Amino acid sequence: MQKVVAITGASSGIGLAIAEELIKNGYIVYSLSRSAPNNTDIRHIVCDVSQRDSIANAYKVINEAEGHIDVVINNAGMGISGPVEYEPVEDIERIISINLLGVINSCAEALPYIRATKGNIINIGSLAGEFGIPFQALYSTTKAGVCAFSLALQNEVKPLGVKVTCLMPGDIKTNFTANRVKAEIPDDPVYGDRVRRSVQRMEKDEQNGMPPSSIAKAIRKLLQQKRPPLCLTVGFSYKTLRSLKRLVSTKTLNKILYGMYGK
Ligand SMILES: NC(=O)c1ccc[n+]([C@@H]2O[C@H](COP(=O)([O-])OP(=O)(O)OC[C@H]3O[C@@H](n4cnc5c(N)ncnc54)[C@H](OP(=O)(O)O)[C@@H]3O)[C@@H](O)[C@H]2O)c1
After folding, report:
1. Looking at the annotation, which residues are catalytic?
2. What single string gives the DSSP state of each residue in 203-242?
3. Does ligand 1 lie within 6 Å of residue 129's CB atom?
4. Mean per-residue pLDDT for 134-157?
5. pLDDT, average across residues 235-247
């Protein structure tokens, strides 16, 4: 029987690459996104992950059409940048409702179906959740939340046969960079040029990052494993970076991050 996968945000970037890789390998894939993917092999359900009803409806429709859901990949996300004190309240609430509440609500709605198949839940976090990135504090916060949530959920559902993984990519070259919402701070006397320099550095890192297909291949392999990892980072340099966190003090680590993105 063909396995059925629901991916939030498979209309572009990482989600689209995962969808194409899994379809190539015999899976039936649905994208839960506001816009349709331009690959017609990917089935599309209009869904806004910031709305719980919209997510609930999407899983109901998939289950009615296929009879089962084997894998849910919570990938939809956005980025915002700027000094915390200048972030508009609407942007703060928006990123939390998509990046964090979107994942929580999707897991809650998907679990009855995923429990039935003893399937997989994969939440796309970020290395930015392991490291507090200045001028992207809200993004780091949502991704740290996704990681903590995934670890807690894993221990809730382990006896039920459900596998949970938090995948934490480093920099990946996608439209994420162009889609980032930037706080307006004309002629700022407080943070000056630090914000522009920080975001520019991050954007350059992203645009020199790994292709989204690297994440897609890692997920294809993960889905073949009986005991998939609880947390996963793709790429040697990003794995090394994650290990560094365990080797240096929090103070030293934050000093390094200040040098990279704070000055
Ligand atoms: N690119 C990176 O360097 C990087 C690194 C680490 C982690 N990540 C994470 O990877 C995930 C995918 O990012 P990406 O790089 O592939 O960015 P992307 O190309 O901008 O794709 C974002 C996807 O999320 C969907 N989305 C956004 N808001 C949504 C909403 N309210 N409801 C439903 N879908 C929504 C978009 O679809 P619609 O607009 O059609 O709704 C789109 O398919 C994100 O969670 C991101 O935080 C990215």
Report:
1. 139
2. HHHHHTSB-HHHHHHHHHHHTT-SS--SEE--SHHHHHHH
3. no
4. 98
5. 93
CB-based burial of residue 63 (10 Å sphere; 0-12 exposed, 13-18 middle, 19+ buried)?
Answer: middle
Q: Is the CB of residue 78 below 6 angstroms from any atom belonging to ligand 1?
A: yes
Write out the residue range of the structural domain in which residue 223 sits.
4-262
Mean pLDDT computed over every residue of the chain: 97
Tell me if 233 CB under 6 Å of ligand 1: no
Q: Work out the average pLDDT over 113-118.
A: 98
- Counting atoms of ligand 1 from 1, which one is nearest the CA of 172? 3
What H or E segment, with its residue span, contains residue 153?
helix 137-157
CB distance 209 to ligand 1 below 6 Å = yes
Measured distance between the N- and C-terminal CA atoms of the chain, rounded to whole angstroms: 54
Res. 184 pLDDT band, cuts 50 70 90: confident
Question: What average pLDDT does this structure show over 113-136?
Answer: 98
Position in ligand 1 atom list of the atom nearest CA 175: 19
With a 6 Å cutoff on the Cβ, whether 98 touches ligand 1 is: yes
Candidate of 57, 176, 179 to mutate for ligand 1, largest count of ligand atoms within 8 Å of Cβ: 176
Residue 218 belongs to a domain with what CATH number? 3.40.50.720
Total domains, the chain: 1
What is the distance between the alpha carbons of residues 177 and 101, in angstroms, rounded to a whole number? 22
Closest ligand 1 atom to the C-alpha of 31? 43
Q: Where are the alpha helices (DSSP H) in 46-136?
A: 52-66, 89-95, 101-117
Give 32's strand partners.
8, 45
User: Which residue among 21, 31, 47, 78 is best mutated to probe the pocket of ligand 1, counting the most ligand atoms within 8 A of its Cβ?
Assistant: 78
- What's the whole-model pTM score? 0.98
